[in-house]
Description:
By secondary structure, the protein is α+β, with helices and mostly antiparallel strands. 24% of the residues lie in helices and 28% in strands. The strands form five sheets. The protein has a five-stranded antiparallel beta sheet with strand order 7-8-9-10-11, with no helix packed on it. A four-stranded antiparallel beta sheet has the order 3-4-5-6, with no helix packed on it. It has a two-stranded antiparallel ribbon with strand order 1-2.
Amino acid sequence: MKNFTILIGFFFCSSSMGISQNLDLDESDITINLEEEVGQRISWTFRDGIFRSTVGKITGINNTQSGFLGLSIDGARNISIISDNIEFRADNISTDESYSDFAFIHESGSSAAHGVTFRNVGVNNNYWTFYTLDGTGNLSLTRNGTVVGTFASDGVYTGSDNKLKENIKPLKKVLPRLLNLTANKYDYIGSDNHKKSIGFIAQDVNKYFPELVLDDPMDDGEVLMQLNYAGFGVLAIKAIQEQQDQIASQQLKISSQEKRIEIQDQTIVSMQSQMKDLLLRISALEDE
């Protein structure tokens, strides 16, 4: 056993006070000290001095502000909080100057290694990540490291680069199938405001456009069919193109018919002229 001095420093605004107490502790046990270069802190040094956990005002993390609680672990710089329920209540939570009640500040980067990640620890280990791009300020969303979409000030965008796609084939005719869909008005069960909604029924859409229906079972086994309503915009454009082809085809037929009618009219005029000449000749012969 070795003798250590524990200094407990309390910092309130511009005043501080210290309490000194001699205790017999093992050299790997807790140390409470005051170091000017890092500010007030409580640190736990593990055996062999490999890692150190610190609670208090830490260099680089609001170390000039009073009333701040910092958490740090040397080495991998990872902090783990394990609990059945974790609740944060504060005016703001951040690693930098906060912009709202609850803020996450991350370093610049364009990958799932930055931002905020939601991961399922199941066998598939799926995860989604949000992060803000430094250059544009857009909010990017990735799934398992692949870009899925981007939230920008002028709209929401879905990943559509050809680098993200394979087995690309033209879409077959959709207009006849679209005409079989029924638009409905309905209430959502459990809605408090009872506001009417309009849309399609997923089971009906699945008969004609299964590509727009998500039929994934939830983790609890329940299956709820969901629709990709953004995909209907593509179908609408395709249907317009098909209608335009029909209109163009009909226009060709009309133009062809008009041409035939014009030729027939010219033929009739020519025949009338010939008939008139013939009648004049007959009249002249009768006069003789």
